[in-house]
């Protein structure tokens, strides 16, 4: 089951997350550096805030049925033909964090 569907089952509206980040003054960073693996924490990090738009794009693409290689190319700008394993790893890491943010991380945002 994709993150969007999980969020909907939990009563979360993905559009609401965008509103929260706008309310908090967060916006998509331009020329952001994308790490191979997301720095993991049990809390929302600066990396999460900087990459929120990227996370949402991955969630939408995943829910639309895009595979890791398509998401790597279209969203992350990674050439999957050059290194398919790297493409899968970077997408998998960021998609896992996006899922975490949708299911768990949002709690921190609403607690403030």
Keywords:
mainly alpha; single chain; disordered N terminus; 112 residues
Describe this structure as you would to a colleague.
This is DUF2285 domain-containing protein. It comes from Roseibium album. The protein is an all-alpha fold and 112 residues long. The chain has one domain. Helices cover 63% and strands 0% of the residues. It has six helices and no strands. α4 (52-63) runs antiparallel to α5. It is globular, with a radius of gyration of 14 Å. Mean pLDDT is 78; it is low at 1-10 and 20-30.
Counting copies of identical and different chains, the oligomeric state is single chain
Q: Uncertain spans, ≥5 residues at pLDDT below 50?
A: 1-10, 20-30
Rg from Cα:
14 Å
SSE order, one letter for each helix or strand: HHHHHH
Shape: globular
For the terminal residues, how far apart are their CA atoms?
29 Å
What is the count of structural domains?
A: 1
Q: Structural class given helices, strands, pairing?
A: mainly alpha
Total number of helical segments?
6
Number of strands: 0
**Main sheet characteristics:** none
Give helix % range. Answer: 55-70%
* Estimated share of beta-strand residues: under 5%
Mean pLDDT: 78
Short structural summary:
This is DUF2285 domain-containing protein. With 112 residues, the chain is mainly alpha-helical.
Please render the helix and strand layout as text.
Blueprint: H1 3-9, H2 14-23, H3 46-50, H4 52-63, H5 68-76, H6 84-111
Organism: Roseibium album
Protein name: DUF2285 domain-containing protein
